[in-house]
Design goal:
This protein has ten helices and ten strands. By secondary structure, it is α/β, with parallel strands linked by helices. It has a six-stranded mixed sheet, with helices on both faces. Strands 2-1-4-5 form a four-stranded antiparallel sheet, with helices on one face.
């Protein structure tokens, strides 16, 4: 039986407490320092872009925040708990950098991929109940892929694949969504649609979003705050504060260039 979809979106309400707390964080690969003495807090409902040049430690920071690797020193807390002590991992959604590219290797339908994201909340080897199936359907409805549910993921475009993996993360009802270079290999027009989706997830559903990007144009117009890395923390503030000559030169050197894309409303 096809899953029936619900269009209801109900954001959680509450005080804007710290949802992520990072204190004196450092990390190295062998003798190479990747991150050094980084501290910052992220509030519930924030929409944060993480920027910096190649090798600045952006993806490494994301993996530490996810608990995938351990820092050399310092602490990371999510929801007021140290990352290693969080039992309910379904609160944390993650879309990796190459999710869309590797999707072609999966002999699975869109619905099967999205449903696999519900396992973190429903439990391994447990059958989905009515609520689980409703949440899977809702995730596909929100990301506008419900009409693709029977298609193989390998048959989809890059933009559609990205939406599938966003839906997979949403099926677990996360409070935080991490994305690493979410629009790699996606053209400008599809990128616009993708960021419209992220904005909806943040504004209407109240999901805290952190994403890594090289696209300064996107950062300048989409996010509510920016975290700038170059091994250390260069700045953490509003896009307006970030987009000044001093910060950009610290990050990219004196010969930086910003490419601005035309926006097309549809």
């Amino acid at each position: 039986m096809p899953i029936k979809c619900s269009t209801e979106i109900t954001p959680e309400k509450g005080p804007k407490a710290n949802i992520i707390e990072v204190s004196d964080l450092s990390f190295r690969f062998g003798a190479e320092k990747v991150l050094e003495n980084i501290s910052f807090n992220i509030k519930e409902g924030d929409y944060l872009g993480i920027v910096g040049p190649n090798g600045a430690g952006k993806t490494t920071l994301l993996k530490i925040l996810l608990g995938l690797i351990k820092p050399e020193k310092g602490t990371v807390k999510l929801f007021g708990k140290e990352i290693g002590k969080i039992n309910n991992r379904s609160q944390i959604g993650y879309v990796a950098q190459k999710s869309a590219q590797t999707a072609s290797e999966f002999p699975a339908t869109v619905e099967e991929i999205v449903a696999s994201g519900r396992t973190a909340r429903a439990g391994l080897f447990k059958k989905f109940n009515k609520e689980d199936r409703e949440k899977i359907a809702k995730a596909m409805e929100i990301t506008e892929i419900h009409d693709l549910c029977r298609k193989l993921v390998s048959e989809l475009s890059g933009g559609q694949k990205q939406r599938v993996f966003i839906a997979r993360a949403l099926a677990a009802e996360p409070k935080i969504l991490f994305l690493d270079e979410p629009t790699v290999a996606v053209d400008v027009a599809l990128s616009e649609k993708f960021y419209e989706l992220l904005n909806k997830l943040n504004k209407k559903m109240g999901i805290t979003i952190l994403f890594v990007s090289h696209d300064l144009d996107v950062i300048a117009r989409e996010v509510s705050s920016v975290l700038c890395l170059k091994r250390t923390l260069v700045c953490h503030g509003s896009p307006k504060d970030f987009m000044n000559k001093e910060n950009l030169e610290k990050l990219y050197g004196p010969n930086y260039k910003i490419i601005v894309h035309d926006r097309h409303d549809s």
